[in-house]
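Why do we care about 3D structure at all? Because function follows from shape, and shape follows, mostly, from sequence. That is the central idea of this module. The next example makes it concrete: a single protein chain, its amino acid sequence, and then its structure expressed as tokens.
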Amino acid sequence: MPASDRSLVVRARTGDAAAFAVLLRRHRPRLVHLCAGILPDPGTAADVAQDAALVAWLQLDRLRDPERFGAWLLGIGRVLCLRTLRATRVELTRDGALPEGADPDTPKARLLAGERSRELAAAIAALPPGQRDAVVLYHLADLPQETVAERLGTAAGAVRTRLHKARTALRARLGEPSKETPMPETAAAVPVRIRDVLRTPARRHVVVLAAADAELPIWIGTPEAEALVAGLQGVELPRPHAHALALSLLRASGRGVSAVRVCRLEEMVFYAEVILDDGSAVDARPSDALVLAVAAGCPIEVARDVLEGTRAAPPDEYTADLARATEGGAALAAELRASLDAGAEELARLRQGT
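And the structure:
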């Protein structure tokens, strides 16, 4: 007896791709028929049907009644078809291209629009997975960025980064102007630099991030402070530290670090994320993220609300301790070099048996 739609949906929600494939085989003919009845170009209809299947897979947990999977899938297909019609019944880009004032309902216009839609579908399919999923959920499924972030298990800022990079890649692939579109000011992070790494009289370590009009001190541990100082001051370490290993593993897997962002502040605890070159984001401690940024030579950013939130912080023992700090990165680097030299000499003596 064939499995019911309900049981297949339950299995698919646990990540069973084979169960979802059975659902698609069962309902795809009706989906394709629906799309072909709305869209005049067969190729565009097939592409939209494929997009609808992808949206359904990514949004399966939003289906309220698993027994109505077929109707739900058709509903997704209908929405995407209507959106495609609205997009292709307007003037295309210069490379697209309909003459000014041309009737979009002529056979020639529909053919050009269909070709452009296929180009766009192919360009989206060629995006890195993180960017492609963000585009599908945000632009096709019409979900808010916060919801997209929740579905993809990342932060809203990372979704904005993925969409920004995806739009740039799509413009380049489709032959449109490659100028960068700035992100909205409300979503923009503030670029910062590491002004110094300090050690306080209480033997605490702090890294000071400097923006154009503000400074942000973040307290870090001794190992991270030494790794930062080594990277900033060019101290040659005898062996790679853990952060260098993480960066090497990323590069070996074909990924790179494009930026590091201090993204939020909760109960006086800072949180950061490492933005990879495919737009995906990895949660990290600020100290670890900053060491990676120095090793990779990538930009460092701080969310604007984080900077604003720290301006009004009341003074405490840490603030007073920081105000008395006199040992900066240069002094710490000299101390680190002396410690490494002493260790090398001790190792040499042990090897000689003296």
